[in-house]
Here is the input.
Amino acid sequence: MRQPLHLRISAELAAKIRSGEWPPGYRIPFEHELTARYGCARATVSKAVEALAAAGLVDRRRRAGSFVAQPHVEAAILEIADIQAEVEARGQAYGYELLSRRLRPPRAEGDEGRLKAQGPALQLICRHRANGRPFTVEERVINLAAAPSAETADFAATAPGAWLLAHVAWSEAEHRIAALGADPVLAGLLAVAPGHACLRLTRWTWRGGEGITAMRQTFPGEAYNLVARFTPAAFGSDGTKTTI
Amino acid sequence: MRQPLHLRISAELAAKIRSGEWPPGYRIPFEHELTARYGCARATVSKAVEALAAAGLVDRRRRAGSFVAQPHVEAAILEIADIQAEVEARGQAYGYELLSRRLRPPRAEGDEGRLKAQGPALQLICRHRANGRPFTVEERVINLAAAPSAETADFAATAPGAWLLAHVAWSEAEHRIAALGADPVLAGLLAVAPGHACLRLTRWTWRGGEGITAMRQTFPGEAYNLVARFTPAAFGSDGTKTTI
DNA sequence: GACTAAAATATGTCTAGACATATTATCCAG
DNA sequence: CTGGATAATATGTCTAGACATATTTTAGTC
Here is the structure.
């Protein structure tokens, strides 16, 4: 059993769909037909077809059968790597510096209000560099009620993202991506002209309903491209299951 | 059987993980223990735990057991809706106009070269409006070898994205998001000042290895925010399975 | 014809096993 | 003490059924 049968079945069905041989709307063979074709139990073909359904390649309807789904670009996988890893993956030298750190009384207005934090917060501003040049300015607010140990962490040595990842569990996150012209302060920090087009990535992170941290990274427009890849099939043509 | 048992098990395990009661690295109960606890067959608990693994909540290792995964913000779901739906969802009036249409000989340089198209292509430039104001300028190239019927389609009446979705199957897509300052031509089309920060979404779409279309949408910076939501668990607290 | 009840049927869920496979722990020999 | 063979064990895959559930088709009734 070099290759599990259910993966082989998934891959063969996925190939028919992706090649266009089975167009959207086409009813793929019933489970009992696949059972006969592959000479296996229904649970096996069911697992194969269910995987295609999970990948969005087919829609299943009781009594009616399973149908090739209409293609739709509705969701893409946006990979947001750790800044340091991102910079080093480009073969550039990574640099990090803490610009500002202060304790802040509770407040709930603005972007940060989405965290619904009640207690005091730690506010950090730091800068990441690639080959010495400013790569991104990060503004971060950490809810000390959710992460008390952050108050004594050494954020001059460790970037807040890396520290939080290692110390605090989270359950939900939301990202927002926007373009904006750099204001004078930001322009100074990023070493660009005021008004220069920048990409801003904002992220809120929660655990349960409790806000943990809000973060805003601003990149000079030409320094960073967010890349999102999407494949409707989770199955490569070689039968390997790709991660979604 | 109001709620399938395997979903109930998944939801209960997910709740323990998300609450922090089972921290990253914690070994969740063995399948035979869950089998005893829930009084069901191993296939049922296996399906439940496998779903958690697929959702990235746990890592499974033979002989060792299943362990709560380290949380990581590595991938987010970027939802990119149809422009018309997006505008209308905001309660604004949608407008569309075709600015330019021409047949182009094959060429393979630049962004478009990623399509690896051999034959002639159709090049379109169009503009989408929200409440009368420019919302985005779309530049699109369609590979006529992959979609011959595009040559006779009426893109003055139907936006190319909607037309392609209905007429051409695709298998892979890639998005790129960047910020840039508007050049004079773009600034005129978007009715903003030259240099104004804009958000640019570029998308390439393939079927198999064959490029179908390349698209570039540029939004005035303040008009559009891309939103990506991420939850490590595919299971809501109510046991419902959320889509990934 | 329109509406309703019943039969048919494909998928959804689940069981109680079996054997395969990867990995860890153990024990033994050198 | 170290390296390697061996045993133990948790997950991975699969079978051959069973019953549940949703939906469509069919048959029957008003």
